[in-house]
Amino acid sequence: MRLLGGRYALEAPIGYGGMSTVYRATDETLGRPVAVKLYHPAASDIPRQESELAVLASLSHHSLVHLFDAGVDIDRRGRQSRYLVMALIDGPTLQQRVAQAPLRARHIGEIGYDMAEALDYIHAHGVIHRDVKPSNILLVNYGNASQRARAKLTDFGVALAGDIERMTAQGLTTGTAAYLSPEQANGGEVVPASDVYALGLVLLECFTRTLEFPGGVVESALARLARDPVIPPSLPEHWIRLLTAMTARDPAARPARSELVGALRQVVLTDSARHREPTEPLFLNDLPGEEQPKPDILEAIPDQALQRATALAARLFSAPIAVVSVVDHDRLWLKSYYGAEIEEIARHVDVSSSIVPLDDPIVIEDGRTDPRAKDSVLVTGPLGIRFYVGVPLRSSDERTIGTLSVLGIVPGTASETDIANLEDIAALVVAQLELRQEGIRNTAG
């Protein structure tokens, strides 16, 4: 049994994040169960981890998962891993509960009310969560047969607070496409109303039990820019009004902090008066044969290997930028290399909205004249990108899982040999991803 800090005994994994695994553990000093978020040794993005720690340490609210402790563990190979110790929530994620059976409107309202209070609190403290989704909402089972749904918001790994936006722009961007707001999907400014939009989609999904904007990153992002979510006309009128307001494409049209809390409080009161005796319990038994979720490709990203690969790709074309993008289900991760000559500008530019998964190599010799790129923000914006070359990242079973791209600020060309060399680098990246993924599976098992 692995013991962290001479105190926290790790037990079974209970969740997987992009760069970490969450374990059920025991605090042997106090004799209580806890949850430990242990970052993978290869996930050496220490500034991001420290920022998540700083955000969690500054927040204390009944609708947030409480942080108890933090530290750095050194394994038998001498590798350092940061860990966070948090309250263990006895209950499923909202994603798991929605997959089991329909939720009563009253329970959905109670969950929404708790989340509205959480957002009201963090927004008042200058924090934007940016990744509100069912798997980041934990339902609390106090074991007292209470029918009042209680929920807590977790995972502040990509939250904006202080200088986190600067660090994100330097290289690593993450988001869950199905719940991004239109301004996020369009590469615009992320504001507190972005969290309100995401919560609106979450509550809508609780009713429909389907994703409103399914598909890959690009497909999902384009869909919400083209239309509003479809609110079922069969819902009660007060829910239709609230969900329509929360998912307005204009951030200014969405309910503000106190308005959202008040609106959901009224929804809970209305639904409680209409249905005093619940016929469906909040917590259900686990589905037969339900298995622990397995880590996917995004949890396998070896940070140091990607830094070297992107730097090598950039040198190959004497270009200042290279990007590895990995797509898995509805999530996009980027790892970028920026040369010194454009690093200061690049810190303030989000390249995620312009990276498209490729099935074949593509070369754009001059973005200002090529119709495929001339309207891109990377070309027209402060970076002034002119040259682009990209090759697909293909897994061992020939699936396209991402792209290795090189971007230059002067026009350029790419020979067949250049493309072949870039494809070789891409193959090395994929090999590292799959090797690391297999290691995580073996460790978790």
Task: Please report the total strand number as a whole number.
Answer: 14
Order of helices and strands: EEEEHEEHHEEHEHHHHHHEEHEHEEH
Q: Taking strands numbered 1, 2, ... along the chain, how are they ordered across the largest sheet?
A: 1-2-3-4-6-5
Number of helices: 13
Separation, N- and C-terminal Cα atoms: 13 Å
- Using only CA atoms, what is the Rg? 23 Å
**How helical, in percent, are the residues?**
25-40%
Structural class: alpha+beta
Mean of pLDDT = 80
How does the overall form come out from the CA principal axes? globular
For the sheet with most strands, the description reads: 6 strands, antiparallel
Structure, explained:
The chain is of the alpha+beta class. The chain is built from 13 helices and 14 strands. The chain has helices at 46-58, 94-100, 105-124, 164-170, 182-185, 192-208, 217-226, 237-246, 257-274, 303-316, 343-346, 377-380, 416-444, and strands spanning 3-4, 8-16, 20-27, 32-39, 67-74, 80-87, 137-139, 151-153, 173-176, 321-328, 331-338, 362-364, 387-394, 400-408. The strands form 3 sheets. Strands 1-2-3-4-6-5 form a 6-stranded antiparallel beta sheet, covered by helices on one side. Strands 9-11-10-14-13-12 form a 6-stranded antiparallel beta sheet. The protein is globular. Mean pLDDT is 80; it is low at 162-174 and 286-295.
